[in-house]
Amino acid sequence: MANQTQYLQEEQKLFLSIALGGNPFLHQQIDETYRTKEWDYYEAYLRSRLKGNPLFSMYSTKNEEKIRQVAGIVEWCTEQGKYAQLDSLIKKGYKFVWLFVQRNDQIDFEQFIRAYAKRQKYRTIKEIELFYQNIVLWYLCMREDKPIQKLSVTWESFQDMLHFSLREAKVGELNFSERQIEEYREQIGSLYRAYNIPENPEFDSLGAFLEYMLGISLRKVYEQDMEFDSEAAQQKMFQLSPGKYIGAMGGWLKALGINELDATEQIPFTKRDLDRALLELLYAKKYNKISAEEQDLFFIASLYLSCIASLYKKAKQFYLDESKQEHYVELKSKEAAILQQEAVQLKKEREWQLSRKSLENERTGLENELRKARMKIRQLEQRLESMEDYSDEVHALRDFVYMEEDPDCLLEKAPSLETMAELIASKRVIIFGGSQNWQQKIRTVLSSIEFFDIDLKSRSLSKIKRADAIFINTSVLSHAFYNRIMKELRGTGIRVYYLKGQSNVEKTVLEIYKWLS
What we know:
- It is built from 22 helices and four strands.
- By secondary structure, it is mainly alpha-helical.
- Strands 2-1-3-4 form a four-stranded parallel sheet.
């Protein structure tokens, strides 16, 4: 049952392809649809069981091309389960069928034909047109699962046409098989003798056989009158059978623009080909009542027709198969080369990405190391600055202690008070600490010195950075404020000195002078 269903589906696809591809009205849309997925459809056709179907080759070149294209579209749509492209063709070429199926739950072919004929009014409906309409109707019924009224003469007639079409494709294979030739061997042999053909002929082409047949006619001429000269005999040869038919058919080929000698030389002509040609003559005499007088004409005409048909089929095969296949193989080769190049490029890209990522990681690591190194350098620089500031502070304290231990060093070679005041006035000096009374006494002698009010703890100390020297009187100065001063001076390079805080103005001036000088 499954095999029967599958066979029915293949048969439907076969005839649907013919109905759509054989409709000239659809050819442009078939081309447009096919171009959208040309190689997908072509590959689907190659995969299908429709490839090489003998029924297709019975149609004209243009129609067969479209039938093959539709077969690819039908196969692709069936494989994908998507019928938009196929339905678009059906709706355009067979709109009445499409609407009839949509509007009816059960399909009666006889009712359809009456409705279709009524729609055409007075236009004559061709048999092939009605056949194609029925094919599409049959396909849609099966696909849409619409029941068919099969108890009708119309349905049975349609089925007979389908079966006849399938048998028609096998006529040549069945009627001219080896078995048939052997069955008619005796009658074929009698025709060999009638045409004076050797039992084992060795003709390499149809042209060679036709020349042999002309030779028979020429022999008949000389049998009638041996006095004929060559030119007259040649003319007479084309007036006797079978020469007159060969001349007439050759002239017909020339009228069609075909070189007779070239055409007939292109066609191989073996003993089997001759047997087939003579068997066809026997069929014509048997079934079409070809008389003895007509048989020469039929025989020669059939040879020329087979010549034209053979050339036509070769050209058709080249157009539909060989050129397409060569183009397909060429494109596939290019596609394979492109895919290979893409794979190489992808590999290189991945390697580059890995290399770049590795370099980025390395760069990030180096940046982190550099950042840490810079941070460490800043920390070391800060420590170094702190150590230098601390060293300056220690030196100042050491000098102060030394002076405390040796107070007489200030009295050695002391200049006059005016001289010392003049030197001190040339410097920007700020003094921190000391009582108000002490500061007032110092101002009377050293008016240029600036005293910093230590009671204003929130006051900015930034101005001390512009001083040449800072003096600290530790007698009235908190430890916290002292730390603020030292922090502000850190890194400035400004010298710091310590005063004893003695009440004697002259000794204080001398002390300041000594530190500055």
